[in-house]
Backbone:
């Protein structure tokens, strides 16, 4: 192990071994000044080396496996993506015209609002932390409890949720969008086949098409592609620790997570856990306390952490996962290396022309009015 090799690398001079200046001298040398002993040079301990090339290649294999999505992804058109971008920023999809998807999933803040619990209709707080929308297409399911199997199913949920956007029904959504001629035109272009183009299902389909474009390539991707210098020696040590301590049991695949459901408190019961997790969606007692594993891409930017947003600090989160998921008390050096690796997962946001708010069509006399009730 690299840390054990550190002990072998210490030299005698670093340990302070030199002439025995403290020994008693004979009478023949009385009255003379002893020769001062050379001062041992206290050099900083060398840092452990990064894994070698063969080890690096083996470590990378944990992140190539495809997500276990049972359904093939649909083919999205540019017209659907453009419409989805508009709908993502559209506050009139909420009852009081004051909450959009971007309100909780800020595209310029790595897909989150950095709040423990987000604000919805009438300032109500949700019961779970808003996860990032970036790289969500790689997830096995959506929401912390996995109740939506696809991005399309997820996109419908917040619009009808009374705490979030609070639309009363699909009819209200469709009436709002149909009232604006530009939306009617864009829906026809995005969904030219079939009957009525402006539907809740098509709105969700467009939102999902847009969200599938929300990826954040990082230095870690260059590393996986063979550019091993893309990660520093410390980041590579962190990657090695990430694999050898067992983090990849849950956080694997292209999104470094999101591909499975795991029990929070796998090795040791997590303190004060009251959220039933996946049980809420399945009503299967075996799913109690299980949550969809979050992606670790951009984790440096997407705190606070856990389903309830109760952990603000990334090093603290690493220590908690080591204890409750792996049964490990991580040392300071291990935590430093792991956090360095996790920061290498911070990626590049899409260009502004893809994620900034586009011009939205004006309301008309037929557009339902804001309703604060």
Residues:
């Amino acid at each position: 192990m690299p840390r054990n090799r550190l002990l072998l690398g210490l030299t005698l001079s670093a340990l302070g071994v030199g002439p025995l200046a403290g020994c008693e001298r004979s009478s023949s040398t009385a009255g003379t000044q002893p020769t001062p002993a050379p001062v041992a040079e206290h050099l900083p301990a060398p840092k452990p080396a990064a894994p070698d090339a063969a080890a690096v290649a083996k470590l990378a294999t944990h992140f190539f496996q495809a997500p276990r999505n049972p359904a093939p992804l649909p083919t999205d058109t540019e017209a659907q993506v453009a419409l989805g971008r508009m709908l993502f920023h559209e506050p009139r999809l909420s009852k009081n015209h004051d909450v959009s998807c971007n309100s909780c999933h800020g595209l310029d803040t790595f897909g989150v609002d950095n709040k423990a619990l987000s604000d919805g209709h009438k300032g109500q707080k949700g019961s779970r932390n808003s996860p990032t929308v970036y790289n969500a297409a790689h997830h096995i399911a959506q929401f912390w409890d996995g109740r939506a199997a696809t991005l399309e199913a997820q996109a419908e949920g917040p619009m009808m949720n009374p705490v979030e956007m609070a639309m009363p029904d699909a009819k209200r959504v469709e009436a709002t969008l149909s009232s604006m001629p530009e939306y009617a035109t864009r829906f026809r272009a995005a969904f030219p086949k079939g009957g009525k183009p402006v539907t809740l299902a098509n709105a969700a389909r467009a939102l999902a098409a847009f969200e599938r474009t929300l990826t954040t390539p990082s230095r870690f991707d260059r590393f996986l592609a063979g550019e091993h210098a893309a990660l520093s020696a410390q980041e590579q040590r962190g990657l090695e620790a990430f694999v050898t301590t067992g983090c990849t049991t849950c956080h694997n695949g292209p999104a470094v997570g999101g591909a499975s459901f795991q029990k929070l408190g796998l090795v040791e019961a997590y303190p004060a856990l009251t959220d039933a997790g996946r049980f809420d969606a399945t009503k299967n007692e075996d799913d109690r306390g299980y949550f969809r594993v979050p992606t670790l891409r951009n984790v440096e930017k997407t705190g606070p952490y856990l389903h309830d947003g109760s952990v603000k600090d990334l090093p603290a989160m690493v220590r908690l996962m080591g204890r409750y998921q792996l049964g490990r008390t991580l040392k300071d050096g291990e935590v430093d290396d792991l956090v360095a690796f996790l920061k290498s997962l911070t990626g590049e946001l899409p260009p502004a022309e893809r994620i900034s708010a586009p011009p939205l069509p004006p309301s008309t006399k037929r557009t339902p009015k804001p309703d604060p009730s």
